[in-house]
UniProtKB/TrEMBL annotation, chain A:
InterPro entries: AAA+_ATPase, ABC_transporter-like_ATP-bd, ABC_transporter-like_CS, ABC_Transporter_VariousFunc, P-loop_NTPase
PANTHER family for the chain: ABC TRANSPORTER ATP-BINDING PROTEIN ALBC-RELATED, ABC-TYPE TRANSPORTER ATP-BINDING PROTEIN ECSA
Entry keywords, A to Z: ATP-binding, Nucleotide-binding, Transport
The protein, known as: ABC-type transporter ATP-binding protein EcsA
SMART domains per UniProt: AAA (SM00382)
Domain ABC transporter as annotated: residue spans: 3-233
UniProt keyword Magnesium present: no
GO terms, molecular function: ATP binding; ATP hydrolysis activity
PROSITE patterns in alphabetical order: ABC_TRANSPORTER_1, ABC_TRANSPORTER_2
Taxonomic superkingdom: Bacteria
Native source organism of the sequence: Lacticaseibacillus brantae DSM 23927
Automatic annotation (TrEMBL), chain B:
Superkingdom of origin organism: Bacteria
Keyword vocabulary terms for this entry: Membrane, Transmembrane, Transmembrane helix
Listed transmembrane segments: 20-43, 55-81, 102-123, 129-146, 167-193, 283-316, 349-368, 374-393
Matching Pfam families: EcsB
Record carries keyword Glycosyltransferase: no
Keyword Manganese among record annotations: no
Organism: Lacticaseibacillus brantae DSM 23927
Assigned GO CC terms: membrane
Name of the molecule in the record: ABC transporter permease
Length: 242, 402
């Protein structure tokens, strides 16, 4: 079950950016996707959400193939992009209504979940404003609310912590952990290694478009032969390899 | 500095050429030719039917010529970064701006000459000959020259005189043209030459000590380019230029017509986008009002019908880019609703908007008692809207997708 990626090769033009990636994001776990700028994190994510067409390989979520049934695949996933994108003409309330319509959610239950998160993020008094005029961090919070109010089985979060205040980071991690405990899979790309080490269950280390290492922190320590290292040191070791 | 000006003009002209090609696409040229022909016909009818010269002819003509003379701003082609990088060149900037002023004279010259030519039959009605036409044209051009000197002066922090601004200048132009038309246009030319001569004579003194107002210059240039791009944006997509969004709470009752269910996802977005964005709703309202007024004024039913259809087509055609408005927003690709719904929703919006426009046109004709025109536009318009929405739109979106 969960997200299964097999032999995924792809990129923007003819030249592949990511090469032969095979990994899984199991149910009930948080996987940290880690790599330098240009390592292929965003390209991987673009493939996983179906914005790019793979040159080879398959992407499969709970037995639904992305290429075969895109709508059913999308129904099961939610995405928080690196830079918030919002509809300039829609209010915060309408963004939530729109999400309910697009994912065919039960309005009452979905609004309950949304209201709870809006309260946490102190956005509950701004429902009739245009979020497009919010600050970067507040926009990011809107994106988080609209993603996590769905019943998705897989959440893909790209660089979630940039622009969030410390309280927001804390609240986001709490929401993510709740979803994990409810059985969802979460794939999170980040540069903030200390936070990743603390909360992610598994790690996917990407370097030059290939997976350098994959597993729990203990697995990584064994693979790199660094028994007492933390994620930071492992990461630096990896970047010095080539 | 002169090299800088040359390279700026080159890139500017390349840019404009690129956009003008998009503006004057084959559809639009066809429509323009029809409108131009209709305009000429109406103008010739207007002159033929005028047996006595009405009292408002001279003030009206003077007003039109004055307004035409206001067209054409000083194109400085400066960029925001100039403020930092060219700050040490402030003294030399004058040479650059002299070039810019001469360049800015080009387009207004063409416009004013064409318009003077067009006023020839009216001058004949006023029993004036070709010397009148010639002196009037020269007078207008010299006034434009003075106007551009004035615009250039205003880029400098210089105190010339109280009331020294474009409004005063064009009040003078209006009076001069008015006097010229009542007596003889040579008078207009003499007044223009006098004003321009005094300004040119005093220029050296004014520029000698004045500091350049970089901020104001950059601001006015970006306003000017903004206006041009907004115009282009009516026809094509100008990158980096998006219409503003207004809340318009008083229109919220309209959104209640679309119920919140998954099948309406795209209608939900499109309806709000249309009502609150200024770009497409503004265009729709402008063209509908202009069209309705023109139709109410036209006597021949077949001409009114033709123009009515042209206006409906113009609005429909210019609404097309709205279809792609949200393609940049990643979520529209991630929603688990198919693309078919997007196209259906857009067709529905276009059908409702153009249908409403047709009804308004027919009503405008009815109000002035042209029941034949109203009937023709109502029937033919609805047929046209149906064909445009359900035959042309799918065809177009499908060919573009391939």
């Amino acid at each position: 079950m969960s997200l299964k990626v097999e032999h995924l090769t792809g990129g923007y033009g003819q030249v592949p950016v990511i090469k032969d990636l095979t990994f899984t994001v199991p149910d009930g776990s948080i996987v940290g996707l880690i790599g330098l700028n240009g390592a292929g994190k965003s390209t991987t994510i673009k493939h996983l959400i179906g914005l790019l067409k793979p040159q080879a390989g398959t992407i499969n979520l709970n037995d639904v193939d992305l290429a075969a049934d895109t709508d059913a695949y999308h129904q099961q996933m939610a995405y928080v992009p690196e830079t918030p994108v919002l509809y300039p003409e829609l209010t915060l309330r309408e963004h939530i209504d729109l999400t309910i319509m697009a994912y065919n959610l039960d309005a009452k239950a979905a609004w309950e979940r949304a209201n709870q998160m809006l309260k946490t993020f102190r956005l509950d008094n701004k429902l009739d404003w245009f979020p497009d005029n919010f600050s970067k961090g507040m926009k990011q919070k809107v994106m988080i609310v609209t993603a996590f109010m769905t019943n998705a089985k897989l959440f893909i979060i790209d660089e979630p912590f940039t622009g969030l205040d410390p309280l927001g980071v804390h609240d986001l991690i709490e929401i993510v952990e709740q979803k994990r405990d409810a059985g969802a899979s979460i794939l999170m790309s980040t540069h903030i290694l200390a936070t990743a080490q603390q909360y992610a269950d598994r790690f996917l280390l990407l370097n030059n478009g290939v997976i350098r290492a994959d597993g729990t922190l203990a697995d990584l320590k064994a693979q790199f032969n660094l028994p007492s290292a933390d994620l930071d040191e492992i990461y630096l070791t990896m970047t010095k390899e080539d | 500095m002169l090299e800088l000006w040359k390279s700026r003009v080159r890139t500017h002209q390349q840019q404009q050429a690129k956009y003008l090609r998009l503006v004057f696409n084959d559809h639009f040229v066809l429509v323009l030719i029809i409108l131009f022909g209709a305009g000429l016909y109406a103008y010739s009818q207007f002159i033929r039917q005028m047996s006595v010269v009405p009292w408002w002819l001279i003030p009206g003509l003077a007003l039109i010529l004055t307004i035409a003379a206001t067209f054409g701003r000083l194109a400085t082609l400066v960029e925001a970064a100039d403020q930092v990088f060219l700050l040490p060149q402030a003294k030399n900037f004058l040479k650059y701006l002299f070039k810019a002023r001469r360049y800015s004279m080009g387009l207004p010259t063409v416009v004013l000459l064409l318009l003077s030519g067009a006023s020839w039959p009216l001058l004949a009605k006023l029993h004036q000959g070709w010397p009148a036409l010639l002196t009037l044209a020269i007078g207008l051009l010299v006034f434009k020259d003075a106007d551009l000197w004035m615009q250039l002066l205003m880029l400098y922090r210089v105190k010339v005189a109280r009331g020294f601004n474009r409004l005063t200048l064009f009040a003078i132009v209006f009076i001069a043209v008015l006097l010229g038309l009542y007596l003889h246009p040579a008078l207009t030319m003499i007044l223009a030459l006098g004003l321009d001569g005094v300004m040119r004579w005093r220029l050296a003194d004014w520029f000698a000590t004045a500091p350049l107002d970089y901020d104001g210059m950059i601001q006015s240039e970006s306003d000017r380019m903004g206006r041009i791009y907004r115009f282009y944006n009516l026809f094509t997509d100008v990158p980096g230029l998006n219409g503003q969004v207004k809340r318009r709470k008083y229109l919220d009752w309209l959104t209640a017509f679309v119920s919140k269910k998954p099948a309406n996802t795209w209608r939900f977005i499109y309806l709000r986008g249309f009502l609150r964005g200024t770009e497409y709703s503004g265009l729709y309202i402008r063209l509908t009002v202009i069209g309705a007024v023109i139709l109410a004024l036209i006597q021949q039913w077949w001409l009114a019908l033709l123009l009515g259809i042209v206006f409906i087509y113009l609005v429909g055609f210019q609404l097309l880019p709205f279809y792609y408005q949200y393609d940049e927003i990643i979520f529209t690709h991630l929603f688990p609703v198919g693309q078919a719904q997007k196209q259906r929703s857009f067709q529905r919006l276009v059908a409702v908007l153009l249908g409403l426009e047709t009804v308004i046109f027919a009503a405008a004709a009815l109000i002035v008692g042209q029941w034949l025109t109203a009937g023709a536009i109502g029937l033919a318009g609805l047929v046209f809207v149906a064909a445009f929405t359900w035959w042309y739109l799918p065809l177009r979106f499908n060919t573009l997708r391939k």
